[in-house]
Amino acid sequence: MAKITKKRKVAEEKVDIEKLYPLTDAMALVKEVNTTKFDASVDLHIRLGVDPRKADQAIRGTVTLPNGTGKTKRVLVLCTPDKEEEAKAAGADHVGLDEFITKIQGGWTDIDVIVATPNVMAQVGKVGRILGPRGLMPNPKTGTVTPDVAAAVSSVKGGKIAFRIDKFGIIHSSIGRVSFTPEKLFENASELLTTIARMKPSSVKGTYMKSVNVASTMSPGIKIDTKSIVA
C-alpha cells in the first residue's frame, strides 16, 4: 500500500468526506487542498441517473467555458486544400489530409481535437478505430465535422470543450487549473453543470444528477451539494 505523504494527509484533513459542499465553497477548497507543485487540472466528476446504453440517455455535447480551460488545445484540421488557409488563419496547429491520415495510421495522436470537413469523412473513417477510443473522432454533434473550419477552430481555442458520459454513467471533465481564481472555477463549473442539467432526457425518472465531485490532480475529492447547482 502506497504511503500517504504528509502534504496529502494535511489536505485530506481539510475535507469533510461526509459533507456536501456548496459549489462556491468547493471551488475555493479545491485550490486549498491541491498537493501538486505544478498547475494541476481541476476536474468535475458527474454521476447521472441514466442508462448510457439507451440512445436517448447517452448524454454528450459541448460547452464553452467562460474562462477557458487554462490549456491551449492542439487542433488538427483535416480538409481539402481549398480550406487549408482558412484553418491556418483561425489558429489550427496542423492542417492537411493524406499525410496526417498516414501519420495517425502509424500511431501519431499528439493532438487534443480534430476538426474535419464533411467531404473528407470517408478518409477519416479509415482511422476511426484509432481515434474513437481516444475521443478524437470528429463528430457533427460536437461541431467538429463542419464546412466552417475557422469557426470550429476558434471555438476550441476559445474554451469550447466536448463531454460525454462513460459506460458507468459518469461524465469526467476539466473545468480549469488550480491557478484559476475560485470565481473563475465557479463560473466554468456552473456553465458545465447547468448545460448538463438542461439535457435531462424526458425518459429519465427519479434523480438525474446523482452526485458531483471536484478534485485537482492527485488531490482529495470534494463532494458538491447538487442543490447548489442552478439549472
Mean pLDDT across all residues, rounded? Answer: 92
Large-scale geometry:
globular
Percentage of β-strand residues: 15-25%
Count of DSSP E strands?
9
Measured as a percent range, the helix fraction is: 25-40%
Helices and strands, in order, run as: HHEEEHEHEHHHEEHEE
Distance between the termini: 41 Å
**Which structural category fits the helices and strands?**
alpha/beta
Task: Provide the spatial order of strands within the biggest beta sheet.
Answer: 7-1-8-9
Major sheet characteristics: 4 strands, antiparallel
What value does the Rg take, in angstroms?
19 Å
Put simply, the count of helices is 8
Instruction: Name the poorly predicted regions.
Output: none
Architecture overview:
This protein is α/β, with parallel strands linked by helices and 231 residues long. 29% of the residues lie in helices and 21% in strands. Helix 3 links the parallel strand 3 and strand 4. Helix 2 crosses helix 8. The mean pLDDT is 92.
Break the fold down into its secondary structure elements and pairings.
Blueprint: H1 6-13, H2 23-32, E1 41-48, E2 60-64, E3 75-78, H3 84-89, E4 94-96, H4 98-105, E5 113-116, H5 121-124, H6 128-131, H7 149-157, E6 160-164, E7 170-177, H8 182-198, E8 209-216, E9 222-224
Parallel strand pairs: 3-4, 3-5
Antiparallel strand pairs: 1-7, 1-8, 2-6, 8-9
Helix pairs in contact: 2-8
Which descriptors would you attach to this protein?
alpha/beta, 231 residues, single chain, three-stranded parallel sheet, four-stranded antiparallel sheet, 9 strands, globular
